[in-house]
What does this fold into?
Amino acid sequence: MNTATSAPADARSSSGAELAGVFEQMMQQLTLLGHTLPKSAGVLTPQQLKILFTLDFLAAPTPMSKLSTKLGVTPGTLTRVAGGLHRKGYLVRRRSAEDDRVVHLSLTKQGHGAVAKVKKYRQHFFADLCGRLSVADCQTLIASHRYILETYRRILYEKKGEAKP
It folds into this structure.
């Protein structure tokens, strides 16, 4: 962190509290705006959707230990939730050829389809939202979300000690 441009500790604390409050309000408003999902996703819990979307983002068979760490859940929780997704036909579980203790998860065609349907629904949702705004307000909203994404991405890479991609 560049200390020459960093705020004093008391200002950071106050700003942190303000940002936390705004973030909570923003997430609540977004939830209220788009609290529905396509009917096809209604059979999935938010936790199951999070697993499907994370596997879609990773785009490769992923060891359950790595996935549980990325999701911030215990391996036992992931095993239980992934088992339900597997029984519903959304996931494939395969043991590693090198180490049979390691189980890799990946999406099935049905899993990819469920993710695609939710993504399409979100595109329609946000198209409708932008349709209710002026062009300038929509562009400001997009720019602010892009700024938030890039800021969080930069902080994550700094935290990991990596160079920004």
The mean pLDDT is 87. The first strand starts at residue 62 and ends at 63. Residues 133-165 form one domain. Strands lie at 62-63, 91-95, 103-107.
